[in-house]
Fold this sequence. Notes:
Elements (H helix, E strand, L loop, with lengths): L6 H11 L1 H4 L2 E6 L3 E6 L6 E2 L3 E2 L1 H20 L6 E9 L9 E10 L3 E10 L5 E10 L5
Antiparallel strand pairs: 1-2, 2-6, 3-4, 5-8, 6-7, 7-8
Amino acid sequence: MEPKMDIAALSDFLAREFPQVADDFVIEGLTDDGVTVRLKVAERHLRPGGTVSGPTMFALADVAVYLAILSRIGPVGLAVTTSGHIDFMRKPAAGCDLIADARLLKLGRVLAVGDVIIQSEGQDSPVARSSMTYSIPPGG
């Protein structure tokens, strides 16, 4: 499916509809089946021990799949997460942004399923893997 929103449109949507988190995320690329999103890691994202918190990595995965879906269906604000799973595989590198590569595995009329690999910038090994399912509202 051809994208209906480019990086600029997705960024504008995120800033308009989710200003509370928009500054944390940068959409770095659109692929044939998804998006690449950067989390600009800041002190507020860290847990004791200086590593990025699990809830922060979950949010990155969730936002990445959400943006991948919107890139294909357009600005449907009420597409919502119905299921999410994350495997934390290793500690993120200290002082590095996180990069999420999200790809859509299924994009149907009412459900979308996506897969996300999260890596520390400059590292080859994933720090987390996630799968997300979204419900798409009628007419979305």
